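[SOLVED] Need 3D model of a two-part complex

Original post:
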Amino acid sequence: MEETRIGLYVCWCGTNIAKMVDVENVAKEMESMPNVVVSKDYKYMCSDPGQDLIIKDIKEHNLNRVVVSACSPRIHEITFRKALENAGLNPYMFEMANIREHDSWVHTDREEATRKAKTLIAGALNRVRWHESLEKRTVDMNPATLIIGGGIAGISAALEIADSGKKVYLIEKSDKLGGHLLNVDLTYPYMYSAQEMIKPKIDRIENNPDIDVFLNTQIEDLTGYVGNFQTKISKDGAEKELKFGSIIVATGLKAFKPDTIKGYDYTNFPNVITSVEFEAMLKSGKILTKEGKEPKNIFIIHCVGSRNHDYHEYCSRTCCMTALKYSNQIRSALPDSHIYHAYADMRAFGKGCEELYTKTSRKDVIFLMYDQKNDLPKIKKASVKDKCEMLIELNEKLSGESVEVAADMVILMVAMESQDNAKTLGQTVGVSLCGNEFYIEKHPKLDPVATTTDGVYVVGSCQSPKDIPDSVSQARAAAARILAKINYGTVEVEVTTAVVNEELCCGCQTCVSVCPYTAISYDDEKNVSVVNEVLCKGCGTCGSACPTGAIKCRHYTDQQILSQIEGLLSKSLELQEV
Amino acid sequence: MIQRVNPDLKKYLVKYGIQDWNECFHCGNCTAICPLTDQGFLFPRKAIRQVQMGLKTSLASNFDPWLCYYCGECSETCPRDANPGELMMSLRRYLTSVYDWTGFSKLFYTKKIWEFLTIIILFILVIASFVVWFPKEQIANFTTYIGDHSFLKVIEAGDLIMAAVVAFVLISNIFRMWYLTILKPKYKVPFIEYFRGIYVLPGVFASQISFRKCDTDGRLYWVNHLLLMTGYTLMFILVVVFLPKFQVSEVYNWYHWQRLLGYYATFGLLFGLSAMFIGRWRKKSEKFKFSHLSDWLFIIMLFLTTLTGILVHIFRLADMPYATYYLYIIHLAVLVPMICVEVPFSKWSHLAYRPFSIYFYYLKKAALSKQHKSKLAAAA
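Solution:
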């Protein structure tokens, strides 16, 4: 066996590490550790000169192992592995010691922190000597895509992918495509007709041979991994198996039910309606009360179910502008009506939205500010002498006055909620939910389309409340990501998988029952467990459960882990003695 | 108390000159820039809000517009061009009609024709009464008859009757203002404060001291207004209270106190009026950008009164009895409607409401501070 030659690099991370850890002292002292050939400290190891330093040393000193003690491996392990690859070393001959998140950031005693850094590095040095070369594996990418949800997001993504000649399976749980947009009249802020936008798109979907639409369909189970998913769906009584390489979840939203808000008494007042009902009224072309009369006073309440700890903390993002759109439509239809808004903050952030607000505010619309957190308006039945059907009482914030407002129709701007089956579908496709039961994206800023499951993307309002342009952008972004992968042709799969030593395996099948990815099956003939390496995520559950030690997890072998612990402990003891 | 939001009120307020209420989105810049904004007195934003929401009761109890001297800073700073300064001006007109129980003010502001009609009727009445009653043989020696005891007695009686009627209306309206701004909103003013605060009245009236805070264009406007106000008040006192000493048959030397005072008052009136006329004509300064008809009427009536007064004086010195006589009639025919219409029911009433608003402001603050202290004591 060749001699182990380790290069150790201690990062300052500017002042992030250097202010709490004596990095120069660490690099100097650790140079004397067994097999360490070079030991250096540097301001930013992740920078290009930092990486070049490693590459140069590997070549000059003929290094075959590298330890970088810096930040979390979640941030820069990939960076350094690439550097090793560039220098001609196997990228897995690398280990990181986290002396930032685990050390400098969480301690206040510089001496202790320096000692801890040495201990952590000793562990890494001890571990890296047992590292083995691992080869990357790739599998073919299935060019078909499954899109769950036939709303504007799903439709946009489907057309984008199918337009490049790739197969799309579009699944919709209702009996028609179009989603919520089917019930929308005009859209803010430019008053484009929703039907004129969605209908041609649906036609294009129906006429595109690359798109298979499955209406009245839901998916119940899903197997596979990025590039090679499969599911069974039932269509017209017959089961059909679909195979695809990527998944777009575009299941959208549902409207908040305001029955639970006491002061609004939605169930008792016939003319207290939700924004969904009012939109339908606009689409039908007539604004009428339940008694069939034109309302004189129309009162619009914002943030119904949004931004309130009793319902949803989040902002539903579209209701303010929809309410302004209503004002414009009401003003055109009923020029002499009185329009009131009870709002919390007017949120007009989108393109053209502030302009819509300004335009609307000049149409003699009364904006009344209320406290949507603690002090909701109350809707009461009016008496005969009030000459209106309802009276709304509220404490108006901008004037500081308690006021009442006459109303013949009240529109509740209801919140957007996630779908009832969001959780079960999320479990099926491997996407988790955030606290508000919307799907979690991989990174809220840098990767708002992908999820932590490779090959699964979330778009539209199932990820968070969104308006049409945002949903469409996200859908098309996901399509671009998928097309790039299809174009590449293959996908890399996890190499740090489990392997079964058939000689040691007793066939107890404990591993089969614990595997969360159903990656382990049982070979009846040989009486041993078999790991499907493309399904295995290398989580290590089987390895720790195996009673005979027959399962080894690559890159996380017992020897590697025990050596690391041994290194940690011996260094810590040694430093204590001093 | 719960008030009904009334979207139609602002449409009615348009008659008083209100405009651009829709533009305000309550950023509060106007209140921040206002040199008179005081703790808890949020003007002018608060008044705009009351207009937008149509809160009639709140508006009636709001005397903030009287505290404002229209420096125009708010309108210049407003990011939405909502003209808060002009809104305060319009509210002063509106509040004048709210305080006035006779209803004439409302009639004159909202239906212009009635104001003109009243002025013309009074004009004709004065001339007619001269034609009927004045002894024709005295016209030829009117330059001395003007100070005759029997003539003066009649004029003085008319003067005093007019002053009494005007004062009665104005004082009763001030009581209504007190009722609407202090009593009705239930500010519990400690009784002693009514006496403690009374000192502010003559002080602010004579010096126009609060005006100076608002004089952002330099002192000139304050000087103008002070000259106009003192000139007017002086002349008013001279002709109403001291008429027998002012309007005499004998022509005194130019340095006699009676003539010197008269000249000062005339100068003050002319100077102040010209400055206002030029300002409103050129519309350069923010406070003169928008002129309601009542603003013009006020300037023109006062100017005509002053001019005819000067001419009477000149013709008399030149010993021209006929010219003096006819000008004297015209002088009175303009003066009577100006006082009867403008003082209690229109723009001139501000000379009473402004000082009283400062007095009521003092009372309101005293009430709020007492309420605050008792709250603190209760909490302790």
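Edit: Residues 468-488 of chain A form the longest helix (21 residues).
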